[in-house]
Amino acid sequence: MRPYRYRIALAFLLLCLGSAIILLVPLAFRDLIDFSFGQRQNSYTGLLDSLSMNGHFVVLFGLASLWGTGGCR
User: Fold this and answer.
1) Within 10 A of 59 (CB to CB), how many other CB atoms are there?
2) Rounded to two decimals, what is the model's pTM?
3) Of 16, 21, 43, 48, which is least packed with CB atoms within 10 Å of its CB?
4) CB of 55 within 8 A of CB of 46?
5) CA–CA separation, 14 vs 16, rounded Å?
6) What contacts 60, CB < 8 A, 6 or more positions away?
7) Counting Cβ atoms within 10 Å, is residue 31 exposed (0-12), middle (13-18) or buried (19+)?
């Protein structure tokens, strides 16, 4: 396994990144729903509280793109 240690480390790193993205997608989607259905008061403290509606969609699109490109290998 010695000649493949860099590939193994890269595979482990990409596996961890893919798992983190899968865990972030529902949180970002929840913030989008909470933001769009009227919780725009000053007490709103979500994951993406400083973004507009378009910003929430851009974040979800970015996460989905990263998730999709990570599964191609």
Assistant:
1) 19
2) 0.62
3) 43
4) no
5) 5
6) 25, 28, 29, 32
7) buried
Token pair belonging to 15: 């596996």
Q: Give yes or no for a contact between 32 and 60, defined as CB atoms under 8 angstroms apart.
A: yes
Beta carbons of 63 and 24 less than 8 angstroms apart: yes
Domain count, the chain: 1
Residue 24: which domain range?
2-70
pLDDT tens over the chain, length 73 residues:
888 999 999 989 888 888 888 888 888 888 778 777 765 555 555 656 667 778 888 888 888 888 888 655 5
Say how far residue 35 (Cα) sits from the centre of its chain. 17
